[in-house]
Structures are given as C-alpha cells and as structure tokens.
Specification:
- The structure is a homodimer.
- The first copy, chain A, has a domain of about 110 residues: GMP Synthetase, Chain A, domain 3 (2-Layer Sandwich).
- Chain A contains 15 helices and 26 strands.
- In chain A, the strands form 5 sheets. An 8-stranded mixed sheet of chain A has the order 2-1-11-10-12-13-14-15.
- In chain A, helix 8 links the parallel strand 10 and strand 11.
- In chain A, helix 2 crosses helix 3 and helix 9 packs across helix 10.
- Chain A is globular, with a radius of gyration of 25 Å.
C-alpha cells in the first residue's frame, strides 16, 4: 500500500534556498589575518551562490553532471561553491591541496573536471600541474594571489582564467533551479590509500541532505542558529565533516579560518569571534594546547569541540578538560561515510569515571548508520565490548562503490565492499552492549593467529608504557603453525639494558598469554610515513626480505 | 551523473532495530495511577514488538499492507504497536477515541482495518460499534478491562477476541523483517473536518523517518537520550507529534500518561518522574496551571514544553514563565503535515521583548518544509510580516492526497491541494522576513473585501479587549460592492450601555479604516461547536436566513 505523502526530493538546492531565506540573518565570517574579518549573511551568500551558478552555466557552459573542482581554503566563497554547484545539477569536486602533485593531477583527470575554482594563494601549487590537466577549460581565481605563476604554463595548455568577483558580478540574483533526482551526484571527494590509485566517493543530494540533518541533530553536534561553528577541518576533507551544509540547513553561523590554520591565529580568532563549536583533527588541538599553555587565552566560548580523523589521545582530552575548560568530543568516520559514523556523546546516568570511559571510545552510531563486526572466521560478532571484528557499515550516507571514471562502471573492490553491499571500513574494534564503538586496530595490521585476532595497537601501547621503550611497532609475520604471529620491533632509549625476555615478562600480565610475541627485533627507529605514522608496510617488507635480525624467545 | 552511495531505505524498521539495540537502556515508563508505574527498557520494548509482529503475522494472518488499528491511550503497548506494525509491512491505523461513534465506524470501515488493538478500559466505547465494523476479524485487548461488554455483540458480528499478553507470550524474539520500499505506507490517521467525510492521511516510512529526525533536531525539540519526554498529546493524534518514533530513533526516554490526563495526575507524574520535556495542547496546560496555582508543586524539571494544536494564549505562556519557571514553546502543524510544520525557537541576538514577540508566533519552518503564502488574488505574497495569504506547504512529510479507500484512487480535493501539488493548509497568516509564521485566521473565516483580506480573528481580538464586550465573532457576509464585508456580532456584559458606534470608534485606531465593520448584531451568546470554538458557520447561516437583526452604521 502506497502512502499519500508528497514525493519531494532531498536536495542541496533545498538547503541553499532554505538557509538563504529562513536563516538569512545567520552569518559566515572569514578570517583574513589582517584583523578585519570578512563578514556576510546567509542571505548574501545565497545571492552570490545564485550568481555563481549563472556564471558557471551561462558563461562557462557548465551543465548537468559536469564536474567543477575547488582548490580552496575554508572561506565564504568556498561555501558559495558548495551550494551553487550541486544546486545547478553539476558536481562539486573538492581537491585536497595537501596531496602530492602526481596524485592531484591523476584525480583531476580521472574526475574530468571542466572548471577549477582556486584560491589565489594556491595558484603556485596548481600552476605547475596545468599542462597535465587535459579536461580543465576554465580557472576561476578566488581572492588575491600572484597570477604571474600562470605565465609559465604553455599557452596551448593554459585554461581560460577568470577572476571570481568579476565573473559573478552583475549576474541575475534568482535562478530557476532544475528539478533534481535525490540520487544524482552532488559532490565528490577522492580518498588516497597507501596503495593503488586514489578512489572517488560520489555523494548524492540525498546523502548530503540526510547527513546534514544528522550533523545538526541534538544527539550529534547539536547545533542551532544560536551557535557559531569553526570548521578547522578543511572543506576539501569529506565536506568539512558536513558542517557547511548543516550550517545552511539549520542556520548555524560559521567562522571560516581560510589559510590561517596555525595555533596562533586559531587562538586569536577563537578569542575574538567566540565560536561555540569547532571541529578538527587531534594535531590541531595538540598545537592549540601548546599555544595556549605558552600564552593563555580564554577559549571557554567553545561549548563543544568535535575531534576526529584519527584517535584522540586521552591525555589531550584531559588537558582540554582541565587546563582549558573545553570538552573535546570524539567522532569517527571516513571519506566513504560522509563522514559521520559515530560520535561519543556519553549516555545519561553514568558516574564521572564511566563517562570518561565512554568519551574515549569512538562513540555511538546514529540510526542511519547500521553497523556489524565481522570476526576472524567471517561471522558476525556480538556487541559485548570484548569480541573484536572488522567494522562494516550500511546506510544512506555510506558509499556502495567508487567512481569508475566518465562512462565507466563504478568500482567495487572486494576488500572495501562486502558481497551484500556493506562498506568494509578496514577498522577493527569492539562494540559495547549499548552501541559504543572502540577501534583497536587497522584490519591490515591485525595479527590473525590461529583463528583469533591480536591487536598490534594494543601490544604497542603496552610496550611503549615500559620506561625503556621509546617506540614499538608490532606487525604480523607468517607462522607455519598459527598462520600469523606478532613480531615486536622496539626502539630502546639510549643506555637501556632491558632485554626482550624482560619486555615479554612486562607484557605478560597485560595481555592474554597466547598473544605474547615470541619474535623480537631491535630497531634504531621505526620507519614512518610522510605524515609521521608508523609505516608497518616497510617493516613487513624488510622482514620478508630477511633484512631484520629476529630473536625468538 | 549518479552517486556511488548505498541505496538504503528510510524505514520504521530501522528505527525499531536501532532503538532496541543502540538505545536499549532507554526506558518507557507508563503511568498506572496506583503509585507504581510500569517500566520497561527500549530493549524489552523491541523484543515485545518483535513478538507482536509474530503474533499478528503468524497467528492472525496479517500481511503486507494490511491495516491494523489501535484504540489506545499513550502507553508502552501502544509504542510496541507503533514499531511492530509498520516494520512488518502492515499499516498502523490510530483511532481517535474522542470521535463520535458514527465517525469512528465510518473510519474503520473505510480503512478496512482487519485487527483492532484496544485498551481494556476502552472496550465499552468500542463494543457498541462492532456490529457495524464489517472488516474487523480480530480484537486484541490490551491490559485490564471489563470484557463482558462484548457479550452484547451478536456472535456472528463479533470478531475473535485475544488478550495481548497471551497473544505475544512465548513468540520468537527475532524477526526477519521484510525489505520495504520507503514510500510504502507505514501509518494512517484520519482528520475530521466540519464538513464531509473524514479524510485519511497515509504516512510513508520515509515521511515518518525524516519527521523523526526533525523532531529530535537541536533546532526543533532538541531531545537526546539524556531527556525524558512526556507526550500528553495522544498517540492517536498525528502520531503524538512524532515523539514516539523520534524517541526510539534518538534514545529519548518516554513517560506515558496512559488515561491519566487530568491536571492532578499529570502534576503528580511530572513531580515524581521528572521529565525534561512534555507536549500537549493549550487546554492541558491551562488545566495544569490552575492545578498548580491551587496546589503548588515543582515542575521546573521541564526544560521545555511543546505546545500546539491551537494557538497558545500569550497569557498562558507568560504565566508558565513567571509562575512555574517553565518555558512553553509554540509549534504549528496538522494531520496533513505529520505534524511538524513550524516551531517557535526564537533567533539569537534579540532583546527579551523581541524574543517574546518571536515566541508568540507559530515559529519557523525546518528545511524540509517549504512554505508560501497565496494572497487574495492568487499570487505568492512576500515574506514581510505584513502581507497576508493562505499558507501552502510542500515537503517530504506533507500530504499530497487523502486515502481513497481500498483499491480506490487517492483523493485530491482542490480546496486542499493546489494544482502543483502543495498542501493548502486553510490557515491564513503572514511570514516575517526571517521566516517566522504568524497565523491570523482560518481561510474560510477571512473576509475577502475588494481584493483585500480582513482578519476576523484580528477584529474579534480588538473587540473583546473592550470592557463591555464579553464575546465577539466576526463573519463575512455578501456585499454588492466589495464582494464581502465583515459582520460584527457581539455579546455585551449585563448592564452595558455601549452602542455599536462606540465600538466602531473603539476599533478605529486599531485597524485600517477600510476594515471597520459597518454591520453589527447583538447576540445573547456566540454559538459554539462541540469543542467550544466559535461556530461561525452557524452565524453565517443565520444571517443568510435573515434570522439576525443587523444594524448598519
């Protein structure tokens, strides 16, 4: 039996029109670094978004489904692009300005971007790539910057260059938005793993809309038009965790940091603009803590801070609580999950100690994110806080595939998607009876020993608590009897006399006996990736190549 | 270009599974009147909902699309029905126990309900109707009550009678829920206008899901698992404003009043169970205020109270603020809008006086409710706080039609739905530049004078502020020159010497000159409907029949 309800699509267009009209007085403030932030209302933002849509459509010939890229900081113009491009039926493609040149080039070509909106300050980064960008017809330069870097690009490989303000000036301030299907593409974002080509996730209008509703939900970030949110997390990083779209949906005021992401300017903008909410990865908060320890300022305006991207050290969370009077709230997600997967709002009726235990988990799933743990033998594990498995998720804002390229079928690599369509997150963890997720390892780093899993992260944590251990990285190595066993590689402090037997003994009371490593290696330093994480791939390869001296106990 | 996101339907099934699993510790407490409320967790509620689904499917033969009615108070079993019936693919049909017997009969037959779940305490109301209910095969009696009233029903017209607890006892506690299309019917609710047959609105899984997300949104009721909500508004009245579904979605604890809706028991349950939120029509709060004035109790646990159904007198809102320290928050909606249409959360950055002015409006629209005002000449009116029009709305939880009956086409009466599919609310009002709706009249009561509208409610309000006027009702009467003009009918206090000219003079400074009534009638009493509202239909008819003595000034 069918319902008698209206069949109205969930679209970014609705978010744009609603925000500009009903929340027209809410504001977006962009930090400029010169003491005079740029301010505009949502109404003005809406009008400028309309003008941008006209410029892209009428002037640059952008049509339904065309990709329009942005290489931009968090600022008002980027918000205009966020709203205008999907609303006109085109696809917003946010480019990660931190990627190496070859990956950026590959991504632009794979998405077949026809236009790039680029902050003037980022032209030096983009200009050298232009000769390799075959599909880009137009460059729209936003804000000041040195355009002379473009002179080095051969004229036959140089797209047409436009200045943003000139391009949108004088265009009509109303737009007859197309009727969109909510399953059409609204935005795309590439994720670059450690192996293989980057993978593009294509968000739909529906997924953006539903995700925006959840971001603003009382049980998630809980934001309203009485709040001002500071998304430090870049708008090129999974849509700044959905904050810009949620802001226009619920009238949340925005404070945009532009390129001023260093601890000093961040402290300054928080002190002077008094946001009630902020969102960033742990590194940012670590930097801000150091800055404020050295030069104290009051940031208690921040009623809540969302922290994600990687696990937040409990010490950082404690320091924010105690030193700064600001509550960090853990969230988990990934490009493939839009990203809101979990958020660690502690439940009611718990003691302060219990509350703390909840806060350091990854958090609880909203109704739209269905979760299951797949154990070592492929079966679904119970939610008992003990049984570990790889986290798989399902829901209307979770990816089902990656973009295959123009005219190509979507990609569904089987290590990323289960046969019944769930996303394999590659994260291993446990879920408590009341639905709180704790991640313990990456699936590729977990040690599969005799049908059970050993967490490398867990062993490392215990080892690094030993006073003589500077660094410890545990990897899986092949074992004839158990399939895999842990190899513990450690870096000892200078002059330390501890031996492997003592370290094994040290671990003995802390993990199950069968998890204790037999294989030990002394390293000068643990190899690291470009972002400073342990590069376990390298350790595993060196072991396979016989380059490591292994002591067996 | 299509997105690569998962195509996961938005269903009540997801709400049920999620609430029972992730918010399993949240509770639903049902008032019993004997000092010992009945308490059960969401986990227990989920298990019992599963058992109910098995009972309905396996035992009573209920299948996809079949209608299962409830004639119940707000209690835990009703919540189980709310979750189980749509999840199994059947349609929950909530019956309004306040309707006259003939309407109730008509509605059950029109919906072709196969089962009725009825509270034992309501059997005396249902029993006399049974001989006329041709489609009802099973009666499931919930809780205690005198079943002997069924003896009077002729055996050949008597459905099979089951006791709820016996029916669900021992059934399996897991269910292989069907894959549903989100546009399938989840629930239905009839609205009975003053003329014609009742009209059935059929909610979809999608509309219920999206509406639940909005109810719990920070900018709407802002509820989480730290809250306990007391829905005094009946679950047979537009799904208790969406609170039960939202509760299971976001883990909001529920306090269910069952049949104890009198001011005394309400005060008692608030005092002892300490809910943080409640929702009801103004009459309930008026009664509670009187109760608490006479016998003061502390109800400041209520951080927010949602009030809707009809406009809340500002004096009541003030009294709650000042006497009880509890904030009443105005909301507007109707059966056709699921019902959340607007909610009056004042904007940020306003003075206390401005805040007050915002609080007495109907409130602001969420992103999913698109609104327009259609003026006297059929054109769309601006949002300027002055230009009045009939409110029309569009959105994923707004009705597009009424249920036509089994196998019949949906009904789209043109006075209820515009040619382009928007719902005509029948309410006339203005919208401020920042999106706050103020309703001024019912469309059928507004006076269409020379292409402009005169608000009858506005004139009545001013007239009733005169010390000699006890009641005033203004209706439209035909006028050769202007189309319609207002007829002011007034009831004067005993011994009053005011004449019509003085009353007209009294109005003169308060409304535009062209709105001043020329026609005046003295009444002994304004005729009322069964619920005590002015019955303007009767006045118009008496005028048309020449029964009124009209003085023309």
């Amino acid at each position: 039996m069918l319902s008698t309800m209206q069949d109205v699509p969930l679209t970014v267009t609705r978010i744009l029109v609603h925000g500009a009209l009903v929340h027209g007085k809410s504001t977006v403030t962009t930090w400029t670094g010169d003491g005079e932030p740029h301010r505009q209302t949502f109404r003005e933002t809406g009008v400028r978004a309309v003008q941008l849509a006209h410029a892209l459509g009428d002037e640059l010939g952008i049509g339904r489904g065309d990709r329009v890229a942005t290489l931009m900081w968090n600022n008002a113009e980027h918000l205009e692009a966020y709203l205008a491009i999907p609303s006109m039926g085109a696809v917003l493609h946010t480019l990660n300005l931190r990627l190496p040149a070859d990956q950026l080039t590959w991504i632009v070509n794979h998405a077949a971007d026809r236009v790039i909106l680029v902050n003037g300050t980022l032209l030096p980064l983009l200009a050298p790539l232009l000769p390799q960008l075959g599909t880009v017809e137009h460059l729209v330069v936003v804000g000041a910057g040195d355009s002379s870097v473009l002179d080095a690009v051969p004229t036959d490989r140089r797209p047409q260059v436009h200045a943003y303000e000139e391009l949108i000036a004088g265009r009509p301030t109303t737009y007859d938005w197309p009727e969109l299907d909510e399953r059409e593409a609204a935005a795309m974002c590439y994720t670059s793993g450690t192996t293989g080509d980057p993978k593009g996730v294509v968000y739909s209008h529906r997924s953006v809309y539903l995700h925006s509703m959840q971001v603003a939900a009382a049980e998630s970030m809980g934001l309203t038009s009485h709040d001002t949110s500071l998304p430090v997390v870049p708008m090129f990083h999974v849509n700044a965790w959905g904050i810009p779209h949620a802001a226009f949906m619920a009238g949340i005021n925005l404070l945009m940091p532009d390129r001023f992401l260093q601890p000093g300017p961040l402290a300054e903008m928080i002190e002077s603009e008094r946001p009630t909410h902020a969102a960033a990865v742990p590194t940012i908060w670590q930097g801000l803590l150091a800055e404020l320890t050295e030069k104290p300022r009051d940031i208690t305006c921040l009623q809540q801070v969302t922290i994600g991207g990687s696990a937040c050290p409990p010490s950082l969370m404690k320091a924010f609580d105690e030193q700064l009077g600001v509550r960090l709230c853990h969230a988990w997600g990934m490009t493939e999950t839009s990203p809101l997967g979990t958020i660690a709002q502690p439940p009611a009726g718990v003691t302060p100690e219990e509350e703390w235990a909840y806060r350091i988990t990854q958090g609880r799933f909203p109704a739209s994110v269905e979760a299951r743990l797949i154990g070592p033998d492929g079966s679904v594990m119970p939610w008992d806080g003990v049984s570990a498995g790889e986290l798989e998720v399902r829901g209307p804002w979770i990816a089902a595939a990656y973009y295959g390229g123009a005219g190509e079928e979507p990609l569904r690599p089987e290590d990323k998607f289960s046969p019944d369509g769930w996303l394999r997150t590659g994260d291993v963890g446990v879920i408590s009876e009341d639905g709180f997720l704790t991640l313990t390892d990456r699936a590729k780093d977990v040690i599969k020993s005799g049908g059970e899993w050993i967490s490398s992260v867990d062993l490392e944590g215990h080892l690094m608590a030993h006073p003589d251990v500077v660094e410890a990285a545990v990897v899986a190595v092949p074992d004839a009897r158990w399939g895999e066993r842990p190899l513990a590689t450690v870096v000892l402090r200078e002059g330390a006399t501890t031996d492997f037997a003592a370290l094994r003994e040290f671990l003995a009371g802390k993990v199950a006996k069968w998890q204790l490593p037999e294989r030990w290696t002394l390293l000068e330093e643990v190899p690291k990736t470009s972002v400073g994480k342990f590069d376990k791939k390298v350790i595993r390869r060196r072991h396979a190549d016989g380059e490591l001296t292994v002591t067996t106990l």
